[in-house]
Amino acid sequence: MTHTLPINSGSMCDRRQVGYTLVELLVALAVSSIVIAGTYAGYAVFARQQQLLQTQTEYDRQAMRAIDLMGSDLRLAGFKDYLNTNAMSAMQPIKIISSSPGDLVLVFDDYDSVGNLYRALIHYYLQPFNPSTGNIRNRLFREWKKCDNPSTLCTLANSSLLYGAVGGEPVLDWVISFSVQGLHPKAYGSFATQFQSVKVDLTVGNSRV
Q: Which partner for 184 in 41, 159, 169, 196 could form a disulfide, CB atoms 3.0-4.6 Å apart?
């Protein structure tokens, strides 16, 4: 038995050309442009938010470092080394010159870099900073001084700069407000009326404010 397979000639094949019309390409291009533009806008917003968050986080870290430093000095306030024959006056350890804006003086015995005992005075205060370019703002300064005559009441006037620059070193920038309040004064004893703790309120802004 013989089978015959039909063969179609090329002229009878159904040939169709597959592709996109100009209108379809223009529509696809328009849709793609919208998607890309939306993606970029979303990324730009996210990038700005991320930058603001990083900036705020850095200011929070700086504020925490300043608070930790102040807390360390406060814990030492009133410390008298047993080798120091000079008495520590009840008016000496913590003195609030101004509550708002905060102006705080702390006194305690310490040893310098070569091991000599001395009576230290630490001064925290706000001071306006006026840069050659940029915004005027407040800075929190820390002044580290040595009492000239520890047998008398140690004050800013009778103490000399020990470390840092004249007027102190800036420990925090862009300070909006700084206030201090003495709490729990002792009712009796050699340190009567002296504060046992200090409340510090510190508000920090940033360069965009």
A: 196
Structure tokens at 115: 């091991």
Handedness of CA 4, 5, 6, 10 (dihedral sign): negative
The two three-digit tokens of residue 42, written as one number:
């979303």
Q: How far apart are CA 87 and CA 7, in angstroms?
A: 121
pLDDT band at 122 (very low <50, low <70, confident <90, very high): very high
Residue 83 burial by CB count (10 A; 0-12/13-18/19+): exposed, middle or buried? exposed
Residues 6+ apart with CB under 8 A from 76: 106, 108, 110
Report the distance separating Cα 2 and Cα 4, nearest Å: 7
Q: What is the pLDDT of residue 35?
A: 78
Weakest-pLDDT range from 2-6, 102-106, 147-151, 190-194: 2-6
Q: Are the C-beta atoms of residues 168 and 143 closer than 8 Å to each other?
A: yes
Mean pLDDT of the region 159-184: 92
In degrees, to the nearest 5, what angle opens at C-alpha 22 toward C-alphas 20 and 26? 105
Q: Which helix (H) or strand (E) holds 171?
A: strand 169-185
